[in-house]
Write a structure and sequence with these properties.
4-stranded mixed sheet, alpha/beta, single chain, 31% strand, elongated, GMP Synthetase, Chain A, domain 3, 154 residues
Length: 154
C-alpha cells in the first residue's frame, strides 16, 4: 500500500527571500539560515532534514523497544547534523543520533544491552536513514542507564 503526502510551498524573493510551507500538521516559515548568509526566518531545509531523520529514528527505536518488552522510564534524543559549506557547494555530511534511554531500576543488564543494540539497529531500519544511506553518514551513539539519572544521580 502506498501513501501520498503533499506539501504546499510559497516563496517571495531570491536566495535571501522567505517562504512558507504547509503539509498536514506542519506549517512553517522557511528561509536560508543566517549562519549560511540567509535571513534566518523560520526553519530551513537543514533543520527539516534533521527533524525528519530524528523523529523517524526516535519512533522506530520506541517501537523496537516496545516489541522487545523494554519499557524505558525516559526516552529522549539529541541529534546533531554537520553541513559543509567550505567548498561553496553545500553538502549534508552527517547526522548523529544520541538517544538517552533510562530503564527502570528493575531492568536487567541484559535488557540494557538489548536496548543499546536496538538503538543502533533503529538507525539502520528507519525509513529516513535508509533514504539517506550512501549520501549522508547517519550513526547512533546511545547512552543507557538503569534506575538512575544521567551521571549516576538516583
Amino acid at each position: 500500500m502506498e501513501h501520498l503526502f503533499t506539501l504546499q510551498a510559497e516563496w517571495q524573493g531570491g536566495r535571501g527571500g522567505e517562504g512558507t510551507i504547509a503539509a498536514g500538521g506542519l506549517n512553517a516559515a522557511v528561509s536560508i539560515p543566517s549562519v549560511m548568509g540567509g535571513p534566518g526566518i523560520g526553519t530551513n531545509p537543514d533543520e527539516m532534514l534533521l527533524g525528519a531523520a530524528s523523529t523517524c529514528y526516535l519512533i522506530t527505536l520506541a517501537a523496537m523497544l516496545e516489541r522487545s518488552g523494554i519499557e524505558p522510564e525516559r526516552l529522549s534524543l539529541r541529534s546533531e547534523a554537520v553541513v559543509d559549506t567550505s567548498s561553496g557547494v553545500y553538502t549534508y555530511v552527517s547526522i548523529t543520533h544520541k538517544p538517552d534511554i533510562l530503564l527502570p531500576a528493575s531492568a536487567s543488564v541484559r535488557q540494557a544491552d538489548t536496548a543499546g543494540k536496538l538503538a543502533e539497529k533503529a538507525e539502520r531500519t528507519c525509513m529516513i536513514s535508509k533514504a539517506l544511506r550512501g549520501n549522508v553518514a547517519v550513526s547512533a551513539v546511545p547512552e543507557i542507564a538503569i534506575g538512575q539519572e544521567k551521571g549516576g544521580k538516583p
